[in-house]
Amino acid sequence: MAGTDRAVAMEALARAGEAVCFAGDQYRYAEVGRRAAALRHPNDPPAVELTACLVTGVAATLRGDHERAGPALRRAVVLGGRLTGPALTPTALTCAAAAGLVVAVDGAAHRLAERAVGLARERGELSMLSRALELRAVAEYWLGRHEAAAETSRDGLRVARAAGQFNCANVHLGMLAVLAAVRADRESSLRRIREIGPTPTPGSRPHALAGWALAVLDLVDGRHAEAAARLASLARLGTGRGQVLVQVMATPYLVEAAAHLPHRPAATAALAAFDRWASSTASPLRRALSARCHALLAPRGGVEAEREFRTALRLHPTEDGAFERARTELLFGQELRRSRRPRDARGHLHQARETFTLLGADRWAEQATAELRAAGESVGPPDLPAARLLTGQQLRIAQLVAEGATNREIAARMFLSTRTVDHHLRNVFHRLGIRSRTELARTFAAEPHAGLASDR
C-alpha cells in the first residue's frame, strides 16, 4: 500500500495503532511507530503529516518519552485546526482530537471531536461517527462536564449499535459505567457493565473501563483493597500490556484507594507514570490531580499533606472541573478533621457539599455532610434555590416546562432531540425533589428570580 498511496498507508497505520490500543497490546505500537516514521517525507501534505504526528506522539507516550511526544502531538492538534478542502475529513479530525487528549489540551480536543462528529453526520460516515463521539465524551470527562459526556456516550452507543460496531458500543457502555460510578450511581453503573456482556476480552478497553467503574464503586463503599487491586490490574506498567492510557486516567482513584492501605507499590508506580505525563503537559487539572495524589500518600497530619492539598486547590481550574475540585475539598477536609483540626476542615467540607449538591452528586454530598457532622457541625439540608440546583440547560428546560411548553416544543426551540429533553427533565425532577410538571410550575412561581440564571 505504501508504494501506491502513502496517505492511505499512513491512515491504515493509525487505525492499526488504534486496534492494538483497543486490544491492550500497546507494546506492538512501537512497530506501528517505526513504519510510520519510514513513510514520512519532509513535504508531506497536512493530513498525512497530521496522522504521522499522532502515531509518532502516541508511540513516544507509550514508551514514556514525553519530551518527544509533546511536540508531535501538539503539531497534530495545530494541523487539525487548519484543515480545509479535501483534507478536512472526519478521520483527520479524530486523529487530531486523539492527539489533543493524549497531550491534555482538552478544549482543543473537544472542538476537534465536535467538528468530526458534525462532519461525519453530514457525510454519512457512520464508521467514524462512533469513534468521534467516544473522543468527545472523553474530552467532556476531562473538562468536568459529566452530564454532557454521558449524553455523548449514549449517542455513541446508539450509533455504534445501529452500525453493527459492537466493540465501539462496548466502549461507550464502559464509559457510561465509569461516569455513573464516579457519581456513585451504583445501579446505573452495574446495569451498563451487564450490557457489555459476561466476557469482554481481558485487557481490552471495554474490560478496563468496566474494571475502573467497579473499582470506583468499591472505593465509594470503603472497599479500598479491592478497589486498588482492580485498578492496579488495568495495565502492567513497563510491559506495554493492558490499558495503559485508561490506567493513567484512573490513577487518582488508585492512589485514593491505596492511601488507606499499608503497602502501596502499585499506586506509587502508577503515580510516577502519571506525574511524568502531567508535568509534560500545560494542564492545570492534571497537575492539580497529581498534587492531590501526593497529599493522599503523604504522612497523615503532616506539613507535606497540607502543602500538596493547597497546591491542588490553587491549580484546579475555576471554569471547568468543579467536580474534581469538590473531591479535593472533601479529601482535604477529611485530612484536617482526622488531624484534629475540625474548625479548619469545615470550610472545605461546606464548599464540597454545596458543589456536590449543585452538581446533583447526592452520594458525595452525603459524604461531605457526614464529615461536617463528625467535625462537630449540625447540618441541615442545603438552603439553595431551585435555579442554583440546575445546570444552565436544565434551568432553561425547566422554565419552558413551567411556562407550559411540551417536550416536543422545547426540543424544537433548543435544537435538541426529544430524548435529550426527556433525560434532562428527569434530572430536573430528581434534583428538585418533585414528581410532576405541575409541581415544577409551582416551584418556579414561588421563586420569581429563578429566571435570572437562565443564560448561565
From TrEMBL:
<dbReference type="Pfam" id="PF00196">
    <property type="entry name" value="GerE"/>
</dbReference>
<dbReference type="GO" id="GO:0003677">
    <property type="term" value="F:DNA binding"/>
</dbReference>
<dbReference type="GO" id="GO:0006355">
    <property type="term" value="P:regulation of DNA-templated transcription"/>
</dbReference>
<dbReference type="InterPro" id="IPR039420">
    <property type="entry name" value="WalR-like"/>
</dbReference>
<feature type="domain" description="HTH luxR-type">
    <location>
        <begin position="383"/>
        <end position="448"/>
    </location>
</feature>
<protein>
    <submittedName>
        <fullName>Regulatory protein LuxR</fullName>
    </submittedName>
</protein>
<keyword id="KW-0238">DNA-binding</keyword>
<dbReference type="InterPro" id="IPR016032">
    <property type="entry name" value="Sig_transdc_resp-reg_C-effctor"/>
</dbReference>
<dbReference type="InterPro" id="IPR036388">
    <property type="entry name" value="WH-like_DNA-bd_sf"/>
</dbReference>
<dbReference type="InterPro" id="IPR000792">
    <property type="entry name" value="Tscrpt_reg_LuxR_C"/>
</dbReference>
